Amino acid sequence: MGNPLAPIIADLWMQKIEEKLNRFSTNKPMIWLRYVDDIFCIFTIPKEKIDEFHIRINKLNRNLHFTAEFEVKNSIPFLDVRVTHVEDKLITSMYRKPIHTGLYLLWDSNQSRRYKLGLMKTLVIRIYRICSTKEIINNELDLLRKTLTNNGYPPHIIKR
Q: What angle (nearest 5°) sits at the alpha carbon of residue 29, between those of residues 57 and 90?
């Protein structure tokens, strides 16, 4: 287990980095979203300028190293969200790592029923919070029904 202060320390370090960036950077991202030490940026400048920004941010502190990922086919994952650039809009959907198996708390497991119902509720809420279109929401809900069925959840429970 890691140090319980690690997220707080990471947040403080990142605040310092952000202050320095605001002072010196001319090629700032149009959007800068951060969750602890994961950052999502949108730039409206050429790739060469983004590379310069990346080099510059890595020089701010020798103990920190930032990596960069660029969109592939107008899409990029950030945490558990897939962000897709379509025309002048950003569409969000669920992102699952390639190793995701769909295995959740099995219905037949020796756990309280409330945990199983709580899991279902949490997964549904997650879909509604992340997915940006009704079509994506419906597709994800269909996938969740299949996944819960594969985990042994009875149809009458899933329909609730």
A: 135
